[in-house]
Design a protein that fits this description.
With 244 residues, this protein is of the alpha/beta class. The protein has a domain of 68 residues. The chain is built from 8 helices and 10 strands. The strands form 2 sheets. It has a 6-stranded mixed beta sheet, with helices on both faces. A 4-stranded antiparallel beta sheet has the order 2-1-4-5, covered by helices on one side. It is globular, with a radius of gyration of 18 Å. The chain starts with a strand and ends in an 8-residue tail after the last helix.
Length: 244
């Protein structure tokens, strides 16, 4: 049973000419849930996230976020977004970047900025210029930027791409702590072992939501030993009607 709804989409579609990047997606995601959008590159995950943020306008369908229809600029202060590609300013320090993104979302709390930097364990590099940081540190900085205004919903687009296994485990530890505090997380990934860490999953392929459920439920429904095997079996059945 889903708790208080944070995000709901109804028959959501986004077309780019003949390409149906998102093709009739229905989602219902509750408070404090880690929801994984799982699928290969090009399956529509990033487009779906950008639609939910109001950064793209749907071709058809509706989106409600925290009880409000999207697009709605007022909701952005309650949402954190970590893009797949780094959006950091290299000529600014780590802390200046976090402060800038926090202010963009309406937060002027220095303590929250320091808390976000501490959460990703970069206090000792807070005054370093971003251009001097390693790739893993930049990923952690990007996460701090998404957290510094204390969002109720966090959308993370492939947040662990290119990071080492230890940092990936650290990130997922952060994510679980956030969910336990009531923050809702939507995490896109094409890595199946990460999917196991989510409360519920949505398998995406060619813009469609093939199946939803916990990792155990999805494996059981297809008699599969692994999530990858389950995904492949759902993909084979995708011509039978999409969401199941």
């Amino acid at each position: 049973m889903i708790s208080e709804l944070v995000l709901e989409t109804t028959e959501l579609q986004k077309h780019f000419g003949k390409i149906h990047a998102v093709d009739g997606v229905d989602l219902s995601i509750g408070s404090g849930e880690i929801y994984g959008l799982i699928g290969p590159n090009g399956s529509g995950k990033t487009t779906l996230i950008r639609l939910c943020l109001g950064l793209l306008h749907p071709t058809t369908g509706a989106i409600r976020l925290l009880g409000l229809n999207i697009p709605n600029k007022a909701i952005l202060a309650k949402v954190g977004y970590m893009t797949q590609a780094s959006a950091l300013y290299e000529e600014l320090t780590l802390r200046e970047n976090v402060a800038f993104f926090a202010e963009m979302c309406g937060s002027h709390e220095p303590a929250w900025i320091d808390e976000a930097i501490a959460l990703v364990d970069l206090q000792d590099r807070a005054h370093s210029f971003v251009r001097t940081l390693s790739g893993g540190m930049r990923q952690r900085t990007s996460l701090a930027c998404a957290l510094a205004h204390r969002p109720r919903l966090l959308l993370l687009d492939e947040p662990t791409v290119g990071v080492d296994p230890q940092l990936r485990a650290t990130f997922w530890s952060y994510f679980r702590r956030l969910a336990n505090s009531g923050v809702t997380l939507i995490v896109s990934s094409h890595v199946m072992d990460e999917a196991e860490r989510c409360d519920r999953l949505g398998f995406m392929r060619q813009g469609r939501l093939l199946a939803e459920g916990s990792s155990a439920e999805l494996r059981q429904r297809k008699g599969a030993n692994t999530l990858e095997e389950a995904f492949l079996k759902f993909a084979e059945d995708g011509n039978e009607g999409g969401q199941r």
